[in-house]
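Good day; I would like, with your permission, to put a structural problem before you. What I wish to show you is a protein chain and, alongside it, a tokenised description of its three-dimensional fold. Thank you for your consideration; the sequence and its tokens are set out here:
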Amino acid sequence: MTGYLLQHSPQDRNGFESFFESCLAGLSEDPQAWVFLRGDGVYQGLREQTMEDPGFTVPVKGGWNALLARGVKVYINERCARLRGLVPFELFLPEAKMVQVDTLARLSLQSGKVVVF
């Protein structure tokens, strides 16, 4: 199993596009993957995320749909979301689970590899 830890907003150079390409490639090697959103990375999981940058080539909503259809599990750090005022949690992807940081520790220990963005 491969884990992806996203700590940056979608607009960051290590944002959604970099993660998406890495995750999609990783799924061809290992079909089990999870994503943990923390810090500004919680913005990645917003249900209605849009990008203003015309150079952005991967639509966030379509990208998440593609990964979710392949069985990728999404976890959002509840504390980080609350600190940013992102409540109610219906603002996020319906498939995402709100969790505490101890879930990240458990997932990391169960995974063969964790990629940090």
Remarks:
- Strands lie at 2-6, 33-37, 73-77, 97-99, 113-116.
- The helical segments are 16-29, 60-69, 78-83, 101-110.
- Residues 2-116 form a domain with the Hypothetical Protein Ychn; Chain: A, fold (CATH 3.40.1260.10).
